[in-house]
Design goal:
With 338 residues, the protein is an alpha/beta fold. The protein contains 15 helices and eight strands. Strands 1, 2, 3, 4, 5, 6, 7 and 8 form an eight-stranded mixed sheet that branches.
């Protein structure tokens, strides 16, 4: 009987040890450099990182359907709106620590998820067709002015980046003002929305529009040549402009992560998050993804740095986006934003 007890104890200990040596990441990020980062974490801690990559909807569906049987520990995605929605559905547990609170500004996290990189959604304008007088001091709120009639391109209304941008405008200006602004903004579109962010920059370069709204890392990706010489040359024809420099600053969003409520390895999951927020990991992220670091003492990629310093809106809590997301999308559709 004693031998049987010892055997059972050993088997349980082995199972616990196995769990303690891994963490399972479900990620919609598509960077090979993230895998390299996980390998660095494993080398430092001995904790193996298992990664399941895919589209957000597919990953969320799997996590929800597997329920308590899910092996997923962390969900990593782009956009605070997505994180907020998944959190609202009760899919995360508390995801914070004194280290996280020290590293990440309060407006870039919640109790149940945190940003691991920053993203800026800005204006890209034609160097040939937009004057300094037109662009200087420009705010997002000014894009409804008649001067921009038939000059703007942007992605579709179902794009989460656009929904979070409009949600932030609602937070700062109120629903009624944004509703009126949207009607004017939509009337200034040069074409029906289509394509990704790079497609908007390409449209400006080709003369189809004068300004585009896109995330900065897409522009840097084009300039890097990773998407071909044609896109690099197109990017050289436009200039970035950071809106709202005279008030709250340019709209900021995040890539973020949360520990899932049924995580079998929550301690290891927290260790991985904290590692992602170290200076070493942040330097790796921004040098490979063209995002902005969560940490102030980490320099951006040189292509991002060449765009210049700017005032970031770090007063608007990104956790607020989900509170205005439904209204944002509804108003976008009512205004005629396809």
């Amino acid at each position: 009987m004693k031998i049987l007890t010892v055997v059972v104890f050993i088997i349980c200990s082995i199972k616990q040890l196995s769990l303690a040596e891994e963490v399972n990441v479900f990620s919609s990020r598509h960077y090979d450099s993230d895998i390299q980062l996980y390998e660095k974490f494993t080398a430092k801690t001995g904790i193996k990182v298992n990664v399941v990559s895919g589209k957000d909807k597919a990953l969320q569906k799997r996590i929800i359907e597997e329920g308590a049987n899910s092996k997923a520990d962390l969900y990593i995605t782009a956009d605070a709106g997505r994180l907020g929605a998944f959190d609202r559905d009760g899919m995360f547990q508390k995801t914070t620590s004194s280290f996280i609170e020290k590293q990440v500004p309060k407006t870039l996290r919640s109790q149940n998820w945190t940003g691991i990189a920053k993203r800026a959604r800005v204006i890209f304008y034609s160097k040939e067709r937009v004057s300094d007088q037109e662009i200087n001091g420009l705010r997002y709120e000014d894009l409804g002015n008649k001067i921009w009639k038939n000059r703007i391109v942007i992605r579709k209304s179902d794009n989460i980046y656009n929904q979070s941008l409009i949600a932030s405008l609602i937070h700062n200006n109120g629903k009624d003002k944004v509703n009126k602004w949207l009607n004017s903004f939509i009337s200034n579109f040069a074409r029906s929305p289509k394509g990704n962010d790079r497609a908007q920059i390409l449209a400006v370069a080709a003369g189809e529009a004068d300004i585009a709204i896109a995330n900065t890392y897409y522009y840097a990706l084009m300039l890097s040549g990773q998407k071909g010489e044609e896109q690099r040359e197109a990017a050289k024809k436009v200039s970035p402009f950071f809106p709202n420099q005279n008030d709250r600053g340019t709209h900021i969003n995040i890539s973020g992560v949360g520990i899932l409520k049924n995580s079998p390895n929550s301690d290891n999951a927290l260790k991985l998050i904290e590692f992602l927020l170290t200076k070493e990991a942040q330097e790796h992220i921004v040098k490979n993804t063209f995002e902005y670091s969560i940490l102030e003492n980490v320099r951006s990629h040189e292509l991002i740095e060449s765009m210049g310093d700017f005032k970031q809106d770090l007063d608007t809590p990104v956790a607020e986006f989900i509170n205005h997301q439904a209204d944002a999308f509804k108003l976008m559709l009512i205004s005629g934003w396809k």
